[in-house]
Structure formats: C-alpha cells, structure tokens
Amino acid sequence: MITCREVVTITTDYLEGKLSFAERVRFQLHLGMCSHCRAWLSQMKATIQVLGKLPAEEPPPEVRDELLERFRAWKKS
Amino acid sequence: MRQSDPVPAETPDAELIARLRARDETAFLELVNRLHGPLTRLARSIAGDAGAEEIVQDTWAAALTGLDTFEGKSSLKTWLFAIVLNRAKSRRERDQRQVPLSSLGPQDDEEGGVDPSWFTENGHWNHPVERWSDDTPDRVLNDKELRKRLLAALEQLPDRLRTVLVMRDIEGLDSAEVCNVLGVSETNQRVLLHRARTRMRALLEEETQDETRRRP
Fold this sequence. Notes:
The complex is a heterodimer. Chain A is mainly α. Chain A has one domain (about 5-75): Anti-sigma factor, zinc-finger domain (Arc Repressor Mutant, subunit A). Chain A contains five helices and no strands. Chain A is elongated. In chain A, about 30% of the residues are buried. Chain B has eight helices and no strands. Chain B is about 65% helix and about 0% strand. Chains A and B meet through helix 1, helix 2, helix 4 and helix 5 of A and helix 2, helix 4, helix 5, helix 6 and helix 8 of B.
C-alpha cells in the first residue's frame, strides 16, 4: 500500500505513464480509497490545463512592422 | 503585459501556406500574430530574454527562406518550433556561461516537489485536500489579474523548472524534444516538471482559497 506522500511524489510519473504496471495499480487503488489524493490529482490536472491555455503575448507593433518589412524584401527577392 | 484575447477561428495551415507562397501580406501577418508570441515564449524559456530575440528573428528569416520548399508534413507551428529548438540548442551548447541542466540533480531542492509538512509521520495528509470547483481553470484564464499573477509566479521559478514547464505544459512539446534540447535525462526532466507543476498548483490553490474567502 502506498502512502499519500508517495502518491504526491509520483503524480507526474503517473500522468506521464511512467509507472510500472504494479505501481500504477497501487496508485489507483490508493486513489480509490483516498478522497484527498483524488482531490490532489484533480488539482494537478487543473493546473496543467490552465498552463496549456495561457495565452502568449501579442507581438509588439514595432516587431510586427519589422517582420512585415522583411516579408516585403523577401517578396521582391 | 499585453495578452491576446480569444482569437477568431484560425485559417487552416494549408490555406495559409498557399497564401504565403502567393506573397500575401495579410497571411504573413496572421502567422506572425498567431506564432510570434509562442515562439518568443519558447525561446525565452531556453535562452533567456537576450538570446530569445535573436533566435526568433533567425527563425522568421529561416521560415521565409524555407517557405517555398516547406512540404507541409507538419503544422506550421511544429515547423517553426523545431527551428527555434534547433537554434536554442546550438546556442545553449556554445554558451559556456550556462549551467548545464544535466548537472543539476533532483536533490538540490525540496524532495520531489513535496512539502514534508503536509504529511503525518505515516505519510498521510495531515490536512484535508479539497477538490477545486470545476470552473477553476476557466475562471483563472478569464481573470486578467489572476493570469498576470500566474505569469509573474512563472517568472519566479528557478530557470530549470521554468524552462521545462514552459516547453512541456505551456507550449505542449513532448518529453523527448525537451530532453534533446536541454540534454537532460527523461527522469530528470520529469522531476523538474513535477516540481514546477507542484509550485504552480500551490499558487493556484492560494488563489482559489482567496477567492473562496471573498465569496459571500
């Protein structure tokens, strides 16, 4: 039986599919019995979801202009 | 910091490529608007501010040079990301001032991103862990201030954690690409990723608790 502490330590290994079959079974058995670790796992998944949707900064106008100039030069070449 | 708001539906790559080859400026601007931010974010995560600018400029130059022969087997994003990664890798290898990520073992930080004070001696939680409400991700992403705090926290992460987190979770690269560019083992990469995720989770938790307190 693995502990909550171990679950927390190997959460990313679990999510990345890097646990052995036996480890994965132990992990899932623990989750089945421990609402705190289920909550922890859902928090980690939510965190990953947020990170994956963070918008990037827009290009500053001067960068856009410079790139456009470069495009025009390429067009002529 | 200016953040892009939800963008209108993207032009499919095939159409964009055809227009680019026809030297259509609006297509190029669309591509720049779509990818300059992510390319810069990716390059910065590996090479810092100074290096990123050069890498991204070079990437756009290479894109224009290669456009007519680009076979379209990958998406434009994947293609341009690969150019950034290549250049960032060469830069990292030639830059002697950088501490190689591979020299940083997992033991120089708290144990695997876990705070020992969370647990009893038996390894059980010593405090309840609560599920966040299902709308937490959307709420965070739609809250400009919160997003700003999240980005600020990201900047505060130690370099090696931020690099891996940006490459993996923010830009969506796979672990093989990260290991290749950074020269770290798969295991080390995962340890860094786990620590970075754990820290960002802690920040979100603080924010969600603050939010709960503010609710009537």
